[in-house]
Amino acid sequence: MIDIHTHILHGLDDGPGSLEQSLEMARMAVSNGISTVFATPHHRTSRYYTPSADIEEAVAGLNESLLEHGIPLHVKSGQEIRVTPNLINDWYEDTLLTLGGTRYLLIECPAYSLPAELAEICHECSVLGLVPVIAHPERNAEVAGDPDKLLQLAEWGAVFQLTSDSILGTFGSKVQSLAFELCSRRLIHLVASDAHDLVRRPFRLSEAYEKIEAKIGGDYAEYCRRNAIRVANDLALEKREPVAGRPRRIFAMFR
Questions:
Q1: Which is an annotated GO molecular function term of this record (predicted)?
Q2: Which of 86, 163, 186, 207 fits as disulfide partner to 240, beta carbons 3.0 to 4.6 Å?
Q3: d(Cα 116, Cα 96) in Å, to the nearest integer?
């Protein structure tokens, strides 16, 4: 399997604190059936600024260590980029990394809202030949209030990545319920672990696919698996016609 969203690099954000912990995470990923991961440190948050050069250097160093230790995992570079009004300017200034040099740009919204500039960012990405991959929309309160807002973003070319722990219930039953809803409405294109460590947020990608197979269907789980491979190979994603639904009140997931 391919995991497009991980925090496996040590010392750059809230992922592992040492190389040894990164290597243990790599072993866990392999045992979970993963062969390739994208290292996507947080970028442009209030706590973290991770320059692309630092990430590329860390990825090269980790891949070298993986070879030395005989761990059959390959790491590719990326960032989890917080949505800000300067995101497109940052692209022009060559400070952003796509996923492994592909057309896919992993972006993150604040937990409680979809920023006003997000639609324009998605449009600008399409003009630039980029595809914005919006991370874990199932954990966003505005999406919980009105999942159809993802339809509007999809019209501008955005695709959506579900986090393993969401569908497994780690973030609570309401987030899990929304995760199932987004899958059943064909609004999710990709599944990733968003792994940060060995215990609190580990690699549980295979378990997530098993849950999707059980609740949504094996065909949909395989569709998401294939799309991760397509990201790694810089190919256009498979897409399915989404199902529209009635909007719900914002913050309903927190009642």
A1: protein tyrosine phosphatase activity
A2: 186
A3: 21
